[in-house]
What we know:
The protein has about 475 residues and is of the alpha/beta class. It has a single domain (about 1-300, about 395-484), classed as Amidase signature (AS) enzymes (Alpha-Beta Complex). Helix content is about 40%, strand content about 15%. The strands form two sheets. Strands 1-3-2-4-6-5-10-13-9-7-8 form an eleven-stranded mixed beta sheet, with helices on both faces. It has a two-stranded antiparallel sheet with strand order 11-12. Helix 2 (about 25-40) runs antiparallel to helix 3 and helix 7 packs antiparallel against helix 17 (about 470-484). It starts with 8 loop residues before the first helix and ends with a helix.
Amino acid sequence: MHPLHDLTIKKMHDGLLAKEYSSLEMTQAFFAWIEKRDPEVGAYLSLHKDLAVRQAEAADIAIAQDTPAGMLAGIPLAIKDNILIEGERASAASKILENYTAAYDATVIAKLKKAGSVFLGRTNMDEFAMGSSTESSAFQLTRNPHDPTRVPGGSSGGSAAAVAAHMAVAALGSDTGGSIRQPAAFCGAVGLKPTYGSVSRFGLMAMASSLDQIGPFTKTVEDAAIMYQALRGHDPMDATSSPRANDDIADALLHPTLERVRSLRVGIPDEYFIEGLAPEIAQKVEEAIASIKSLGVEIKRISLPHTKYALSCYYIVMPAEVSSNLERFEGIRYGSREHAASLSDLYRKDREAGFGTESKRRILLGTFVLSSGYYDAYYAKAQKVRRLIAQDFANAYKEVDVILTPVTPTPAFKIGEKMSDPLSMYLSDIFTIPVNLAGLPAISIPVKGGLSVDGKTLPVGFQLIGKHWGEADILGLGQYYEKL
């Protein structure tokens, strides 16, 4: 039998029901593997050992009584550090929240608790989810499990690395401009960014409220479907949550048919295969396209003409929302309370000590674009471009059902390689950002075989983008690709 920490959700669930092992045994096996593997990777900021043991024991009792809550009962998961778990530390990898303990559960956490899941610990991330490499964490560096000299991607790099290094069966992350899909591609995991409004954001520390979306990292597309089914649902506590999230699509998600998959039309946008896309990445994505085509799926070239404006648009809209959302961290309710002679001096000193370089950069940029005299020139114009980008997708979906693209322009880059060049760092999200601007669902799936670079085999991902509420399409197509 494979080591317990190597199993998928589906295989682990089947083994639990067959009483081949217990959730407590699995949880202890994970902690033993984390102790051995994580010193090199650095995926976890802290472990919830006491909580995990209690949850595992409760799951074992339910399974022994043949009353498990569902497929996630007893399954060990990792949680990104910006998602609240009542009574546990949640810092968003920032010094300003270093000692903050959550007073309530995020809705997704409440759902997973009800499902009987086990929470192993909180994973490292870019501070307040601002970054593409997990190098802006205030506390530690996370390394790519496939090559420790390279980044795991970001901002959910800790969650991606935990799953890729078999230190969790699955993990939660958040995706604002690609922060699930990009690290999934770099680390060789499956990463799902759901339709905006399908998974509650209540209890997620907001970065950019109109873009943020919680989603899962898993080892397989099938597992991503299982996680999404557990997480989705309307939440009255979240004003951006949609009633459509309660639609019953479980059968389509968990049991896709080849007939349905073969009926899909897949679009390949010319604008995503551009100068700047590494030739070796383009080749691997073409291999994925050929595999998809072998399923009997129709492939069609399409155009998304406003794609070239997406990065500029995003880096106006996102910092503006960051500026508003992070205003609450003024150093009084949160922070280290630096010594100061006046209240204004306290604000300055606490925020200077509490926020890292990237957070300060985005707060300043966002404050600028929202300021008098610049709002219309930048922010209002960016919102108009955002509508054009969304309209491009709407037009494309009159011809196709799913869009296939690269996830990243390059494989995982070296640690420190882009830290002194923010624009170069931002370009690593160029293929994922349009999805968030349009609120669409998308998934990153590893291309089979990976890529040989400097004697290491590095993962490469391809992206499937669906229509609004089209998760069943991209998850179904992804599951049949994995079976090839």
